[in-house]
Amino acid sequence: MVVVVSVPVSVQADDIGATARAKQWSLAPLGVAEAWQRTRGENVVVAVLDTGVDARHPDLAGAVIGDTDLTGTDRGTPRWESHGTAMASIIAGRGHGENHAWGVSGIAPAATILSVRVTLDNNDPQRRQGRTWGANALARGIRYAVDHGAKVISMSLGGGSGSWRGAETEERAVRYALDRGSVLVASAGNDGAGTNCRNFPAAYPGVIAVGAVDRRMRVAPFSNRQKYLSLVAPGVQIVSATVDGSYVIGDGTSSAAAIVAGVVALVRSEFPRLTPSQVRWALERGTTHAPTGGHSPEYGHGVVNAAHALEAAAKAQRRPLRAEAPFPVSSASPVLSRGAPIRGTDVSRRIVCSALVLLVLTMTGRALARRRRRARKFPIYR
């Protein structure tokens, strides 16, 4: 996250919950209330691949199943699950109190959260100590989520410092999920005002990459701009739950991705037979504030809208889209076909020559150079 500040806690707990609900500005412009007339995400399991979820938070009571940890690190005390808890609440927070009128209401409050811990919070002491954690945790987490019934996989994470970068193990896990009908959503990254590098897992073909906009539906300066961006969602001053029953307000594409994962859960609940490609089409077809030309690296296909996505999904169900492979296996894939992970630096984008293609013409030969981009290491985005 770019900014995280605590909601004032000097008042009664119920007042804190009321304040949190009042500050949830992002629900109104996304057609959520209208979508809730049809579904609230019933019968859908959303896997949150993150830092773990504090299921004790009152807004998540009864919403969380599982507590799998693939990091191989100590959870310790106090609990270091703030980021995962925040994302889970944005997706499926149920509020609390009479008629659930207080606290955070998620986009799909009737959905179920499957918590899969694959990374550490930025303020986790083990991260500051340079501790390493589970090899291929993200790839294993994706497969675990699919095998345990998740039809939506939310990944508000990315980047590297050498440990998280494009790799064939993750590419294969993404393909595994798509082939089995799971929809994957990931944050585009928060260095749009800086290096604006490619961010994995968002950059994997088949993953719905999400950028962030502010209250006026303007692209947030920190939101990464890339040609593979699918759409954008609110990611500025987003209220979410955190550990110990409290709340935070934060900025970042993490929150935007969680919002989109919630919308996917609504579509999945109402139209469970749609393929991942059809779900993605419905979200992109149902956006508002679409850019000129229908797509841009800054805005993707536009701002996600829950009500419009359901309408588009109904059309997709009546007129099924032609089945297509999750993504092609070719040299254009973001991961090298031989399995070597994409490498690079945090300073500049590296462009390398990949091959020389010999073209034989009657008596002479000509060599043509082709270029392709390779991604770089970059920090985990929060």
3D structure, described in words:
With 382 residues, this protein is an alpha/beta fold. It has one domain (3-318): Peptidase S8/S53 domain (Rossmann fold), CATH 3.40.50.200. The protein has helices at residues 13-22, 32-36, 82-92, 125-128, 137-147, 168-179, 253-270, 276-285, 306-318; strands spanning 3-6, 45-50, 64-69, 94-96, 102-105, 112-117, 152-155, 183-187, 208-213, 231-234, 238-242, 246-251, 350-361, 364-374. The strands form four sheets. The chain has a seven-stranded parallel beta sheet, sandwiched between helices. A three-stranded antiparallel beta sheet has the order 1-12-11, sandwiched between helices. A two-stranded antiparallel sheet has the order 4-5. Strand 13 and strand 14 form a beta hairpin. It is globular, with a radius of gyration of 21 Å. It starts with a strand and ends in an 8-residue tail after the last strand. Residues 1-12, 160-164 and 325-382 have low confidence and may be disordered.
Q: Biggest sheet: strands side by side, in what order? A: 3-6-2-7-8-9-10
Taking all Cα atoms into account, the compactness measure Rg is 21 Å
Secondary-structure-based class equals alpha/beta
Taken as a percent bin, the fraction of beta residues is 15-25%
- Order of helix and strand elements from N to C terminus: EHHEEHEEEHHEHEEEEEHHHEE
What is the CATH topology? Rossmann fold
- Please give the domain count: 1
Supply the CATH class. Alpha Beta
Assign a percent range to the helix content: 10-25%
- The tally of helices reads 9
Identify the CATH architecture: 3-Layer(aba) Sandwich
Distance between the termini: 4 Å
CATH fourth-tier homologous superfamily = Peptidase S8/S53 domain
Largest sheet: 7 strands, parallel
Number of strands: 14
Show unreliable segments: 1-12, 160-164, 325-382
What would the principal axes of the Cα set say about the shape?
globular
For the residues shown, what is the average pLDDT? 81
